Every structure is written in structure tokens, then in C-alpha cells.
Amino acid sequence: MKEKIVVIIPAFNEENAVGLVVNAIPKELVDEVVVVNNNSTDKTSLAAEKEGATVLFEAQKGYGNACLKGIDYLISHRNEDTDIVVFMDADFSDYPEQLERVIQPILDDRADMVIGSRALGNRAKGSMTFPQIFGNWLATTLIRVIYGEKFTDLGPFRAIRYQALLELGMKDKTYGWTVEMQLKAIKHKLRSTEVAVDYKARIGTSKVSGTVNGAVMAGYKILTTIFKYI
User: Fold this and answer.
1) In angstroms, what CA-CA distances link 72 with 34, 66, 88?
2) For the domain bounded by 5-228, which CATH number is listed?
3) Strand partners, 116
4) 84-134 pLDDT per residue, tens
5) Which is it for strands 5-11 and 32-37: parallel, antiparallel or unpaired?
């Protein structure tokens, strides 16, 4: 029986990229693409709708807030019709066509959660800033030392069984979303694995790594989240 797969894409002012992301997702594998417009001031919603995505609106800014909005939609609209949830960014830095490799370990019943690792894949020069690279290394090193679980990335391109996602009880509303999911997966003894994904320079400027304040705040939130769940 075919697994029912939904993609959730948080988006803030990504009118030039989100349509390309939605269009590149292998439609034969996915039942629905949900774009969460995180209080954008541009035409993000129109660009996503044009490519056939379901568009939700979340007024409260924050990556985690947008993801939580997407999960609430699944619970209220397709609770019995979702088996796997895939998260990816709206900036076209990921390769949506690699979705199949991200979900494959779950389809093969080898994992409950799969992280698309940019560290294991081909990363285009300049696609990640030094703070991003160092922050990922530091965070994954701390997770390995403190929690005994080996990850190489906190990458946004990831897949998880829907029921497992609900059991995690995700709460983070901002930058700590990805690391919270990985830490809670460890706590809940989910079977986690990584697959190599490629990464390219995003379209436009990052709202996080593209500013000093954003990079500092994201790093602080990730580190405090790691220690919070000890």
C-alpha cells in the first residue's frame, strides 16, 4: 500500500524561490504540498498556489511557528491520511527531486526519522556561511558527546513518520525546531538515520545566516536547546 506523504514548507518572503521548490517536488511521490506563509509581505502565497500547493497563513513569525501550523493542518484536515511528513526550506537551496532518497529508509522500514545531511552530500561553494558550518559541527558534536547519538547535520530537509512526529510533541517556535526534533527523537528512541543530500546557494538573502543578529540568535537557541533536554 502506497504511503501517504505530505511536504511542509515554511516560507517567509520567498516569492522568487518557493514556486521553484514546489514545482521540483516529485508529484508522483507526494499527496500534498503545504506551504506555510509566515507573515510574508511579498507574493509568496501566490507563487506557491500557482504551482498547486496548499497555502496556510501563520501571522506569528518563527520557523517553528510555521512548522507547527503545518502540523495543526494535518491533524485537522488529514489525520488519517498522512503516513510520512517531509520538511524542506522554501529558498531552493535543497534539491526537492532528492525527496525519494530522504524518504526511502522510512519506506524500507529502516528508520522512523531521516535527516538529509548536507555534510554528507555535495555542498556548493558558498552555499553555507562559516557560522552555519561551525554551528552545525558544534551542535552535532555536543549531541554526540552528551546524548550518544551521531548526527552530521541539523539540516532542514528531513522526513519523519507522522505518528512519531505527533508523539514528539514539538514545541519550539523559532530557530530551535530542527535540533529539538533530533533530541526528542533520541529521547523517544526513534530509529534515526541520515542520507546525503546536495545543497546549493539559496535564492535571495537568508533571514538567519544572512545577518549577524540572526546567526547569533539561531546559534544561541540551538545551544540552549541542546542543554535543555539533558
Assistant:
1) 11, 10, 17
2) 3.90.550.10
3) 195
4) 999 999 999 999 999 999 999 999 999 999 999 999 999 999 999 888 899
5) parallel
